[in-house]
Amino acid sequence: MDTSKLISPGKVRRSKLRLTNTSLLLLGVVAVFVLFTIINPRFSAASNLNIIIKNMIVTGILATALTPLMITGGIDFSFGSSLSMSTVIVAQLFSRYNVDIWLSLAIGIIFCTLVGLINGFFIERFNVPPLLFTIGMMNVLYSLSLLTAQIGRPGLGAGSPTAMASSLPAFSEPLYWFGTHSFLGIPLSGYVLIVVIAIFWFLMRFTKAGAHIRAVGGSPEVSSLLGIRVHKVRRTLYIVMGLFTGIAGVIMILNSGTGSPLFGTNMPLLVLSAVLVGGISLSGGRGSIWGTLLGVVLMGMIYNGLAIMNVGPFFITALQGLILLVIVAGYERRGRSGRTA
Amino acid sequence: MAGQENAKLSSNLGRLFRRSTVPSLVLAYILFLLVFSLINPVFISVANIKNIIVNLGILGIVALGVSMVMLTGNVDISVGSNFLFTSVIVMQLFNMPGISIPPIVVIICAVILGSCFGAINGFLVTVVGINSVITTLGTMSLLKGTGQLLAYVYAYNGKSITNIFFLNFGRGYLFHAISLPFVYLLILLFVFWVILKYTKFGKDVYTTGANATLARLFGVKVKRTQFVTFIISGALAGFAAALTVAQLARSDPYFGQGLEFQALTIAVLGGISLLGGRGTLIGVLVAILIVGSISNGLAVVKVTTNLRDAINGLILIAAILLDALRQRSFGAQKLA
After folding, report:
1. Do residues A113 and A243 touch, judged by C-beta distance below 8 A?
2. Within 10 A of B178 (CB to CB), how many other CB atoms are there?
3. Contacts with B, A 107-146, CB within 8 Å
């Protein structure tokens, strides 16, 4: 890989860079907020802000878990499909096979963790390009989630994917209570996000694991010379990503009361854009949890702002691509991105 | 390494299978044909083989373009959306009120439009310097959204194409047996095989993919080579889109979905390395036959579409893993 990274002094200059990036990002968040409020005053209404926060919870959890993985130079693109698959599994288990709700939720989380385990194992064991491997995984899981959603509903087979989304049977108490109540103006699931952020911040800031993650991101070669098992660090982070994908899936179920194969289809590009705009490089080494969070807020506001302007789903698809390209063109420079290819 | 004479033959055979994927691919293909024709004899009927070939041509042309990009060490997964967008435009060109455009002009327009999208990818990868997977993920989403939007704006319901020459361009048969798109595919494969084998550009493609830094030191115009392969890939996707519209006489906002991954599967399975610089178009041809026959075979034994997609995805993952293993054995040989 890149050898110039080995000799770059890096540390001091990098932290300064991050500071300016973060303040720039903060400025961007404020600017977008003001802009959308001017376009449509409804944007900054309390009810809409509540929607923004609610939509940000799932993407926030995913982006937070993706951050350390991408700092080490890994990447995951399969979490969207993995999440939808787990919600479909839970919905089917609960409503069709009368499995206890807590057990179904646990199985959903275990499923996502297993996906992370498989990703990590193959990518690190065989040195497979992670982006392409997880894109392949995404395709497989998407098809499987459509298949699973069809079980017991043969009429849906011929329809388009959109017909599949017409929810699997809804959930009842106590999940309904958890999904609809809020405390101090924040939905209860929002506290899950806060806990997740706290865990990752603590992990990255104060533990040996966090130091290892940053070391691997800075230079895998030097880290392995220092005795850090690079593959093991990344493999663990893929599993962690899987685990938190499962938790995000549970939140998705709580908020919507259902499972659907379409929940995660738009997520990968959205979360990836959020993480990248937060200052993480595709080749690893840079980035922080706080940058990612600002990225999540920024992306959440942009998509919500567009949604209340009533732009159609095709516009959203097109803009997702455009936003990703603009962000990456602004941040990325060639030459460091050998592995992610 | 030990150089005993009797071990030489077996090690040569082993190397043949490891270095070049073609023999093992052919073997796998024959096995596959046997199994499927045992399950359902319809599979090897003349009518079905004709059917397989009809579907192969278009898929193969797209896969050929993707293979060219991959030989230089990049990946293009925007071809499916490029295909969708171009097919919508082709459909619109035939439905312009009051104007009738000659089919040949439409086909040329499709190729040019496709290559423009390819050029955008090439620009972002070589000039701006973004990783090719991320670039083409972005353009994939961008073109898909705008293409579907256009499809709805133009609203094709009930509209169709009546130009016989254009329809025959996609539907015709050579000698009443081989569908024309497959003939185009064979011609294109031959042309690109010659280009790769006998021209300086072909050599540049392989050198760039094998080691871009070294290639630059040897005076190869690395960026230009990569740029050109993106244009080739886009142009072939545009051409394939025109062929599809000619075959079906309609366009559809769901055209091209999953096409990019099928093309990627073919290229990787055919032995085009994900890291670039290794692989031949003969391997790609065999992989086209395999992937096309698998989709058809699964359909013949009545596997549902979703399960078929899942199996296709698994084949892609398997191909990526195989490529990684091959990479490793090749690396070991280089050291030895």
Report:
1. yes
2. 16
3. 122, 126-129, 131-133, 135-137, 139-140, 142-144, 146
Give the list of residues 6+ apart from residue A172 with CB closer than 8 angstroms, or none: none
SS3 assignment, position A169:
coil
Strand partners, A183: A186
**Nearest residue of A to residue B314, measured between CA atoms:** A140
Q: How many CB atoms lie within 10 A of CB A68?
A: 28
Alpha helices in chain A (DSSP H): 4-7, 11-39, 46-71, 79-96, 101-126, 130-150, 161-165, 175-180, 188-206, 208-218, 220-225, 230-256, 267-277, 289-308, 313-331
Return the axis-axis angle of helices B46-71 and B222-248, rounded to nearest 10°.
Answer: 160
Task: State how far the Cα of B329 lies from the Cα of B251, in Å rounded to an integer.
Answer: 45
Q: Enter the pTM of the model.
A: 0.81
Distance CA A125, CA A165 (A): 36
CA-closest candidate to residue A258, choices A167, A177, A149 = A167
Alpha helices in chain B (DSSP H): 5-19, 22-39, 46-71, 79-94, 103-122, 132-154, 164-171, 180-198, 200-210, 212-217, 222-248, 259-269, 281-300, 305-335
DSSP B223-288: HHHHHHHHHHHHHHHHHHHHHHHHHHS---TTTTTTHHHHHHHHHHHTT--TTSS---HHHHHHHH
Q: Please tell me the distance from the alpha carbon of residue A243 to that of residue A110, in angstroms, as a whole number.
A: 7
CA gap B249, B262 in Å, rounded: 23
Given CB atoms, is A161 within the 8 Å cutoff of chain B? no
Residue type, A111: F
> Chain B residues with CB inside 8 Å of A150's CB?
306
Q: Give A237 to chain B, closest Cα distance, Å.
A: 21
User: Distance of CA A213 to CAs A11, A65, A204, A227, A233, Å?
Assistant: 15, 13, 8, 13, 7
Query: Cβ A269–B141 below 8 Å, yes or no?
Result: yes
Could you give the CA distance from residue B7 to residue A236 in angstroms, rounded to a whole number? 42
In Å, what is the CA distance from B131 to each residue of B14, B127, B136?
35, 11, 9
- B121 to chain A: which residues are within 8 Å by CB? none
Write out chain A residues lying below 8 Å of B152, CB-based: 314
Q: How far apart are CA A265 and CA B218, in angstroms?
A: 44
Of A140, A157, A160, the CB nearest to B310: A140
What is the distance in angstroms between the Cα of B115 and the nearest Cα belonging to chain A?
19
Q: For residues B173 and B54, what is the distance between their CA atoms, to the nearest angstrom?
A: 9
Q: Is A340 on the interface with B (CB under 8 A)?
A: yes
The tens-digit pLDDT sequence of chain B (336 residues) is 444 555 555 555 555 555 566 777 788 788 877 887 777 777 777 777 777 787 788 889 999 999 999 988 888 989 999 999 998 888 888 877 777 778 888 889 999 999 999 999 999 888 887 888 888 988 998 998 888 888 887 766 566 777 777 777 777 777 767 788 888 899 999 999 999 888 888 888 888 888 878 888 888 888 888 999 999 999 999 999 998 888 887 777 778 788 888 888 888 888 888 887 788 888 888 888 888 888 887 877 777 777 888 888 888 888 888 888 777 665 544 333
* Coil/strand/helix, residue B303: coil
Q: How many CB atoms lie within 10 A of CB B237?
A: 36
The SS3 assignment for A152 reads coil
Distance (Å, rounded) from C-alpha B278 to C-alpha B67? 10
Structure tokens at A262: 């379409």
